[in-house]
Amino acid sequence: MSGGITTTGRGVYKRKDGRWEARIYSYDGKHGYRSFYGETKEAALHKRVAAIAYSYAGDITEISVRELCREWLQIISNRVKPSTLANYRMKIEKHIIPQFGSLMCHEITSKALYDLINLKLSSGLSARYISDIFVLMKSLFKYARRVYHIPNPLDGIVIPKPARTEVRLLTPQEQERLKFYIGMDFSLISLGIILANGMGLRIGEVCGGLPVGSDLRKKALSEKINRESITNRCSPCLHYYSVR
Questions:
Q1: N or C: which end of the chain has fewer CB within 10 A?
Q2: Domain holding 96: CATH number?
């Protein structure tokens, strides 16, 4: 390694003179800190990321985002539930690969990440869902930093905060009206609503898998889940409620 710089992703603040300062710890010859200044927070962070990239230039492995995602999914495949793995793969294939798949990991910039946020917001995705995508990306690039010494481009990225909404339960009268409407227009979507309402399940749990050995009279579900449905994601229910 030709440098000697580490960072935890913190150490960014606004100075009294109005400039932003991004600090990193350096063990390059002697212990201490280096500071990078900018008129905006992003400008200061960009200078810091560039310095880290230069520091690791001799050790960085050329690996594309597509290759990184494939490798990371393979490594975690035995550590997470099949439904979780399917969720990660869906987000990667639909949101990360189309945007960054052809780029090398060290080529991703803060601007490109903010462009992705704006693109997804304009497409109708919620701040909560976008936050989930970026949490996944942070895991990907933590692995890239640990294994390939690639600076994490998500350091300092501000993700939109999900709006907190109050959940209101349906009154008995509203539940009866819902049952009446469902009876007038029965479909796969209606079936999902019936299961969610009658069994105390979230709509995501209903869409997450087709239950095998269900006992509707006892309002209980077997723990055995059809693995094929994890991949298919019961799309009619899911897409009815939100854009994914």
A1: N
A2: 1.10.150.130
